[in-house]
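Case study 2.
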Amino acid sequence: MDMLDPVFLARIQFAFTIAFHIIFPGLSIGLAAYLAVLEALWLKTKNDIYLSAFKYWIKIFSLIFGMGVVSGIVMSYQFGTNWSVFSDKTGPILGPLMGYEVLSAFFLEAGFLGVMLFGMNKVGKKLHFFATLMVAIGTLSSAFWILSVNSWMQTPTGYEINEVGQFVAKDWFEVVFNPSFPYRLTHMVIAAFLSTAFLVGGTAAWHLLKDKTNPIARLMFSMAMWMATIVAPIQVLVGDLHGLNTYKHQPAKVAAMEGNFDTQKGAPLILFGIANEDEEKMEYTIEIPKLTSLIITHDLDGELVGLKEWPKDERPPVNMVFWSFRIMVAIGVGMVLIGFFSLYLRFRKRLYDSNLLKRAALIFTPAGVVATIAGWIVTEVGRQPYTVYGLLKTADSASPLELPAVATSLALFIIVYLLVFGAGIYYCLKLMKRTPKLEERDVKTGIPRRAAGITPIAALKTQDGGKGDD
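Prediction:
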């Protein structure tokens, strides 16, 4: 690929912006659900430890949510600037789907976000919990529509091409629920939950290493480890099903993921290696015989299609897909091991005593985010050279822009993103370094003083019949 090709620079710009963007919606999905669970437990048990954890994470959530909105708007504009041909040809299908995401998910999030952030002592506990629940549902709905859009680009169905070369919907049900959509949606939502679990667990581990008696840090750590124990193995199973679906619909992508150039029976699992795409072979490999055939076909001697079945200009870049896939899988295996180790320590009643587990959790704090980015590289780079798989090539999707225009916008994006989102991430880290503290209760009323802005005076009014204690 020519580094001075405007299309290549446009791809780099989109990859750069989506790598930033995907961090924030993923964590928003997980944190919104986590906050809803914490508030539900507080309402059910009346135990202020859940409220204290809720208050600790809600500021972080609001900042991450805001950065996700801003980075998402920027990405939308790129469809009209760098990828106008793609927008024109796919607009009749992708436009309505993205519109549904705004009308349903984003409006739901935005409509209840203010109540969630500032309304606990104004609208009552039950209505506030309803607002938190709506924000959580909104983030999940957003994932539904965006994953439907992306999945249709990977496995297009339910369309026809009109007289001017545009994709138009013939069956909206087939468009939305295309063959890869259920697997991608499930895989992505679980990835969001795991990313959040290890963000919470790593933050708690940081505080427990300084004070293992901190009750809120212990709560956060325990909940995060439960999520790792239960959900990480489920993600492995979902990933396997997703891989089988991908092999059925995008076999070239799987061949690149496995570094498999030759069609062969009993294909080995290549743990490590470097692809020599000119000579069409993997070099410096470490292999396990027949394991890839067993994983993909469930038969030790199953036949796997190799990359040589496609012309060189229709193959994805092998090394990037191959290594991104291994990074994602390695992190997933690490999460499973941490989950099982925590379960062992929990049964021995030593969950909070093991510094090894705490340090492992601390190291894995950004692991979910890294795995998500690696997974998206596999997904997006693996479908190259197409934007709509098998139908519309990337080179035919770009706007007719000159090199200086694309290069200038790319440079500006890098500078602005590093400044703006770098500052936002830095502030998030500062918030996570705060020591979690239990809410102080007013002596007369017994109500937490700092619960969502409740002051002792407001608490007295609440006891006299105000709305703050529904």
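Confidence is low (pLDDT under 50) at residues 442-447, 450-470.
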